[in-house]
Amino acid sequence: MQGGLRKITPLVGAVLAASLLAGCGGSAEGRQPTPTKTCPAEVPAPTAKIAPSTIYLNVVNASSKGGLAAQTSKLLGWRGFKVLEVSNQSVMDDRPAPKAAEIRYGKSGRQIALTVATQVQNPVLVEDDRTDPTVDLVLGDSFALVPVPPPPPSQVKVNVYNTTYRSGLSGEVSKQLEARGFTVLSNGNDPSKSFLPDDVALIRHGERGEPNARRVALQFKGARLVQDGREGTDVDVALGNKYSQLVPEAQATPPPTPKPSRPPGC
Protein backbone atom coordinates (compact mmCIF):
# COMPACT_ATOMS: atom_id res chain seq x y z
CA MET A 1 0.00 0.00 0.00
CA GLN A 2 1.42 3.38 -1.01
CA GLY A 3 0.12 6.89 -0.30
CA GLY A 4 -2.92 5.52 1.57
CA LEU A 5 -4.38 3.98 -1.62
CA ARG A 6 -5.60 0.43 -1.64
CA LYS A 7 -4.99 -1.64 -4.73
CA ILE A 8 -8.24 -2.65 -6.45
CA THR A 9 -8.25 -6.14 -7.89
CA PRO A 10 -9.88 -6.77 -11.29
CA LEU A 11 -12.76 -8.65 -9.62
CA VAL A 12 -13.54 -5.81 -7.20
CA GLY A 13 -13.32 -3.30 -10.04
CA ALA A 14 -15.84 -5.24 -12.08
CA VAL A 15 -18.27 -5.36 -9.16
CA LEU A 16 -17.94 -1.61 -8.59
CA ALA A 17 -18.49 -0.86 -12.26
CA ALA A 18 -21.60 -3.02 -12.34
CA SER A 19 -22.93 -1.26 -9.23
CA LEU A 20 -22.40 2.17 -10.77
CA LEU A 21 -24.13 1.17 -13.99
CA ALA A 22 -27.07 -0.26 -12.07
CA GLY A 23 -27.49 3.03 -10.25
CA CYS A 24 -27.71 5.04 -13.47
CA GLY A 25 -30.63 3.32 -15.14
CA GLY A 26 -33.46 5.64 -14.03
CA SER A 27 -35.40 8.06 -16.18
CA ALA A 28 -34.98 11.82 -16.13
CA GLU A 29 -37.94 12.00 -13.76
CA GLY A 30 -36.38 9.48 -11.39
CA ARG A 31 -38.97 6.85 -12.24
CA GLN A 32 -37.39 3.46 -12.70
CA PRO A 33 -39.75 1.01 -14.40
CA THR A 34 -39.33 -2.71 -14.15
CA PRO A 35 -37.53 -3.81 -17.34
CA THR A 36 -39.94 -5.36 -19.82
CA LYS A 37 -39.93 -6.54 -23.39
CA THR A 38 -41.04 -4.06 -26.02
CA CYS A 39 -43.36 -6.62 -27.62
CA PRO A 40 -46.88 -6.84 -26.17
CA ALA A 41 -48.24 -9.63 -24.03
CA GLU A 42 -51.83 -10.46 -23.17
CA VAL A 43 -53.28 -7.69 -20.98
CA PRO A 44 -56.12 -8.58 -18.60
CA ALA A 45 -59.31 -6.56 -18.48
CA PRO A 46 -59.65 -4.07 -15.61
CA THR A 47 -61.58 -5.36 -12.62
CA ALA A 48 -62.59 -1.88 -11.47
CA LYS A 49 -64.76 0.50 -13.48
CA ILE A 50 -62.96 3.83 -13.78
CA ALA A 51 -64.43 6.73 -15.74
CA PRO A 52 -62.07 8.16 -18.39
CA SER A 53 -62.85 11.66 -17.08
CA THR A 54 -60.99 10.77 -13.86
CA ILE A 55 -57.85 9.50 -15.61
CA TYR A 56 -54.90 11.86 -16.16
CA LEU A 57 -52.45 11.00 -18.93
CA ASN A 58 -49.10 12.12 -20.25
CA VAL A 59 -48.72 11.21 -23.92
CA VAL A 60 -45.14 10.66 -25.07
CA ASN A 61 -44.06 10.17 -28.67
CA ALA A 62 -41.23 7.64 -28.90
CA SER A 63 -41.95 6.89 -32.55
CA SER A 64 -40.48 8.26 -35.76
CA LYS A 65 -43.83 9.86 -36.67
CA GLY A 66 -43.99 13.59 -36.05
CA GLY A 67 -47.16 14.88 -34.41
CA LEU A 68 -48.36 11.46 -33.30
CA ALA A 69 -48.63 12.42 -29.62
CA ALA A 70 -50.63 15.56 -30.39
CA GLN A 71 -53.05 13.68 -32.64
CA THR A 72 -53.45 10.87 -30.11
CA SER A 73 -54.04 13.35 -27.30
CA LYS A 74 -56.86 14.96 -29.24
CA LEU A 75 -58.52 11.61 -29.89
CA LEU A 76 -58.17 10.54 -26.26
CA GLY A 77 -59.62 13.86 -25.16
CA TRP A 78 -62.67 13.17 -27.30
CA ARG A 79 -62.96 9.83 -25.52
CA GLY A 80 -63.10 11.62 -22.18
CA PHE A 81 -59.53 11.25 -20.88
CA LYS A 82 -57.65 14.18 -19.33
CA VAL A 83 -54.30 14.81 -21.02
CA LEU A 84 -51.78 16.63 -18.85
CA GLU A 85 -48.71 16.80 -21.07
CA VAL A 86 -47.80 16.01 -24.66
CA SER A 87 -44.12 15.50 -25.45
CA ASN A 88 -41.46 13.59 -27.33
CA GLN A 89 -39.42 11.02 -25.45
CA SER A 90 -36.33 12.68 -24.02
CA VAL A 91 -32.98 11.91 -25.60
CA MET A 92 -31.79 11.30 -22.03
CA ASP A 93 -34.26 8.44 -21.68
CA ASP A 94 -32.39 5.32 -22.74
CA ARG A 95 -35.35 2.98 -22.42
CA PRO A 96 -36.16 1.25 -25.72
CA ALA A 97 -39.14 2.58 -27.62
CA PRO A 98 -42.13 0.23 -27.56
CA LYS A 99 -43.18 -1.55 -30.71
CA ALA A 100 -46.72 -0.21 -30.35
CA ALA A 101 -47.42 1.35 -26.94
CA GLU A 102 -46.13 1.29 -23.39
CA ILE A 103 -48.30 2.29 -20.44
CA ARG A 104 -46.28 3.36 -17.39
CA TYR A 105 -47.99 3.61 -14.02
CA GLY A 106 -47.34 3.58 -10.28
CA LYS A 107 -48.05 0.85 -7.77
CA SER A 108 -51.55 2.12 -6.99
CA GLY A 109 -52.42 2.83 -10.61
CA ARG A 110 -52.69 -0.62 -12.16
CA GLN A 111 -56.46 -0.48 -12.65
CA ILE A 112 -56.08 2.95 -14.23
CA ALA A 113 -53.42 1.58 -16.57
CA LEU A 114 -55.62 -1.39 -17.47
CA THR A 115 -58.44 1.02 -18.29
CA VAL A 116 -56.14 2.98 -20.60
CA ALA A 117 -55.04 -0.30 -22.16
CA THR A 118 -58.61 -0.94 -23.34
CA GLN A 119 -58.16 1.99 -25.74
CA VAL A 120 -54.82 0.90 -27.19
CA GLN A 121 -53.80 -1.90 -29.53
CA ASN A 122 -50.93 -4.14 -28.40
CA PRO A 123 -49.91 -2.28 -25.22
CA VAL A 124 -47.13 -3.24 -22.81
CA LEU A 125 -47.72 -2.33 -19.15
CA VAL A 126 -44.75 -1.17 -17.07
CA GLU A 127 -44.88 -0.37 -13.35
CA ASP A 128 -42.52 2.33 -12.12
CA ASP A 129 -41.98 4.06 -8.79
CA ARG A 130 -44.28 7.07 -9.21
CA THR A 131 -46.56 7.76 -6.27
CA ASP A 132 -49.29 9.71 -8.07
CA PRO A 133 -52.16 8.19 -10.08
CA THR A 134 -51.04 9.58 -13.45
CA VAL A 135 -50.23 7.32 -16.38
CA ASP A 136 -47.73 7.77 -19.20
CA LEU A 137 -48.78 6.50 -22.61
CA VAL A 138 -45.65 6.05 -24.72
CA LEU A 139 -46.21 5.67 -28.46
CA GLY A 140 -44.15 3.47 -30.77
CA ASP A 141 -44.06 3.22 -34.55
CA SER A 142 -46.88 0.64 -34.67
CA PHE A 143 -49.13 2.57 -32.29
CA ALA A 144 -52.86 2.49 -32.94
CA LEU A 145 -55.93 3.18 -30.85
CA VAL A 146 -58.73 0.65 -30.62
CA PRO A 147 -61.45 1.96 -32.97
CA VAL A 148 -64.43 3.54 -31.27
CA PRO A 149 -67.49 1.40 -32.03
CA PRO A 150 -70.25 3.27 -33.86
CA PRO A 151 -72.82 4.68 -31.44
CA PRO A 152 -76.45 3.55 -31.59
CA PRO A 153 -78.72 5.41 -34.03
CA SER A 154 -80.36 7.27 -31.13
CA GLN A 155 -77.07 9.13 -30.60
CA VAL A 156 -76.53 10.08 -34.25
CA LYS A 157 -77.73 13.29 -35.90
CA VAL A 158 -77.89 13.50 -39.68
CA ASN A 159 -78.76 15.86 -42.49
CA VAL A 160 -80.23 14.12 -45.54
CA TYR A 161 -79.66 15.76 -48.91
CA ASN A 162 -80.81 14.91 -52.42
CA THR A 163 -78.40 15.25 -55.34
CA THR A 164 -80.69 13.50 -57.84
CA TYR A 165 -83.67 14.55 -59.98
CA ARG A 166 -86.00 12.32 -57.93
CA SER A 167 -88.35 14.71 -56.19
CA GLY A 168 -88.99 14.09 -52.48
CA LEU A 169 -86.20 11.54 -52.10
CA SER A 170 -84.51 13.20 -49.11
CA GLY A 171 -87.82 13.47 -47.24
CA GLU A 172 -88.60 9.81 -47.88
CA VAL A 173 -85.19 8.63 -46.67
CA SER A 174 -85.36 10.97 -43.67
CA LYS A 175 -88.55 9.31 -42.47
CA GLN A 176 -86.99 5.87 -42.85
CA LEU A 177 -83.90 6.89 -40.88
CA GLU A 178 -86.04 8.44 -38.14
CA ALA A 179 -87.96 5.18 -37.90
CA ARG A 180 -84.61 3.49 -37.16
CA GLY A 181 -83.85 5.91 -34.34
CA PHE A 182 -81.68 8.53 -36.06
CA THR A 183 -82.30 12.22 -35.45
CA VAL A 184 -82.71 14.04 -38.77
CA LEU A 185 -81.77 17.69 -38.44
CA SER A 186 -82.71 18.77 -41.96
CA ASN A 187 -83.42 17.47 -45.45
CA GLY A 188 -83.68 18.89 -48.94
CA ASN A 189 -81.45 19.51 -51.91
CA ASP A 190 -77.73 19.26 -51.27
CA PRO A 191 -76.38 22.70 -50.32
CA SER A 192 -72.99 21.62 -51.67
CA LYS A 193 -74.63 21.04 -55.08
CA SER A 194 -72.87 17.69 -55.45
CA PHE A 195 -73.40 15.64 -58.60
CA LEU A 196 -73.11 11.93 -57.79
CA PRO A 197 -74.03 9.92 -60.90
CA ASP A 198 -72.05 6.84 -59.79
CA ASP A 199 -72.71 6.90 -56.04
CA VAL A 200 -75.31 5.37 -53.78
CA ALA A 201 -74.61 7.94 -51.08
CA LEU A 202 -71.83 10.18 -49.86
CA ILE A 203 -71.44 10.28 -46.06
CA ARG A 204 -69.73 13.54 -45.08
CA HIS A 205 -68.35 13.94 -41.57
CA GLY A 206 -65.73 15.64 -39.44
CA GLU A 207 -62.86 13.89 -37.69
CA ARG A 208 -64.72 13.61 -34.41
CA GLY A 209 -67.85 12.32 -36.14
CA GLU A 210 -66.18 9.36 -37.85
CA PRO A 211 -67.81 6.72 -35.58
CA ASN A 212 -71.22 8.32 -36.23
CA ALA A 213 -70.55 8.29 -39.96
CA ARG A 214 -69.78 4.58 -39.82
CA ARG A 215 -73.17 3.97 -38.18
CA VAL A 216 -74.92 5.95 -40.93
CA ALA A 217 -72.94 4.20 -43.67
CA LEU A 218 -74.23 0.83 -42.47
CA GLN A 219 -77.66 1.88 -43.75
CA PHE A 220 -76.44 2.40 -47.34
CA LYS A 221 -74.79 -0.42 -49.25
CA GLY A 222 -71.84 0.99 -51.18
CA ALA A 223 -71.80 4.41 -49.49
CA ARG A 224 -68.57 6.41 -49.48
CA LEU A 225 -67.28 8.16 -46.37
CA VAL A 226 -65.65 11.55 -46.88
CA GLN A 227 -64.06 13.52 -44.06
CA ASP A 228 -64.39 17.28 -44.27
CA GLY A 229 -63.29 20.05 -41.94
CA ARG A 230 -66.46 20.36 -39.87
CA GLU A 231 -66.48 20.45 -36.10
CA GLY A 232 -68.76 18.26 -34.03
CA THR A 233 -70.32 14.91 -34.79
CA ASP A 234 -73.23 15.68 -37.13
CA VAL A 235 -73.22 13.75 -40.40
CA ASP A 236 -74.48 14.62 -43.90
CA VAL A 237 -75.97 12.01 -46.21
CA ALA A 238 -75.88 13.07 -49.86
CA LEU A 239 -78.02 10.65 -51.87
CA GLY A 240 -76.62 9.75 -55.29
CA ASN A 241 -78.15 8.48 -58.50
CA LYS A 242 -77.36 4.84 -57.66
CA TYR A 243 -79.43 4.93 -54.46
CA SER A 244 -82.43 2.58 -54.47
CA GLN A 245 -83.20 1.61 -50.88
CA LEU A 246 -81.78 1.32 -47.38
CA VAL A 247 -80.06 -1.83 -46.22
CA PRO A 248 -82.59 -3.98 -44.29
CA GLU A 249 -82.44 -2.86 -40.68
CA ALA A 250 -81.51 -6.31 -39.37
CA GLN A 251 -78.45 -6.30 -41.64
CA ALA A 252 -77.31 -2.75 -40.82
CA THR A 253 -75.09 -3.85 -37.95
CA PRO A 254 -71.34 -3.32 -37.46
CA PRO A 255 -69.04 -6.29 -38.08
CA PRO A 256 -67.09 -7.77 -35.16
CA THR A 257 -63.95 -5.84 -34.25
CA PRO A 258 -60.97 -7.80 -35.59
CA LYS A 259 -58.18 -8.74 -33.22
CA PRO A 260 -55.23 -6.38 -33.78
CA SER A 261 -52.26 -7.81 -35.62
CA ARG A 262 -48.94 -8.09 -33.83
CA PRO A 263 -46.40 -5.30 -34.39
CA PRO A 264 -43.56 -6.05 -36.83
CA GLY A 265 -40.78 -8.02 -35.19
CA CYS A 266 -42.99 -9.56 -32.50
Automatic annotation (TrEMBL):
<feature type="region of interest" description="Disordered">
    <location>
        <begin position="244"/>
        <end position="266"/>
    </location>
</feature>
<dbReference type="InterPro" id="IPR027381">
    <property type="entry name" value="LytR/CpsA/Psr_C"/>
</dbReference>
<keyword id="KW-0732">Signal</keyword>
<feature type="compositionally biased region" description="Pro residues">
    <location>
        <begin position="253"/>
        <end position="266"/>
    </location>
</feature>
<dbReference type="Pfam" id="PF13399">
    <property type="entry name" value="LytR_C"/>
</dbReference>
<feature type="signal peptide">
    <location>
        <begin position="1"/>
        <end position="22"/>
    </location>
</feature>
<dbReference type="InterPro" id="IPR050922">
    <property type="entry name" value="LytR/CpsA/Psr_CW_biosynth"/>
</dbReference>
<feature type="domain" description="LytR/CpsA/Psr regulator C-terminal">
    <location>
        <begin position="155"/>
        <end position="243"/>
    </location>
</feature>
<protein>
    <recommendedName>
        <fullName>LytR/CpsA/Psr regulator C-terminal domain-containing protein</fullName>
    </recommendedName>
</protein>
<feature type="domain" description="LytR/CpsA/Psr regulator C-terminal">
    <location>
        <begin position="56"/>
        <end position="143"/>
    </location>
</feature>
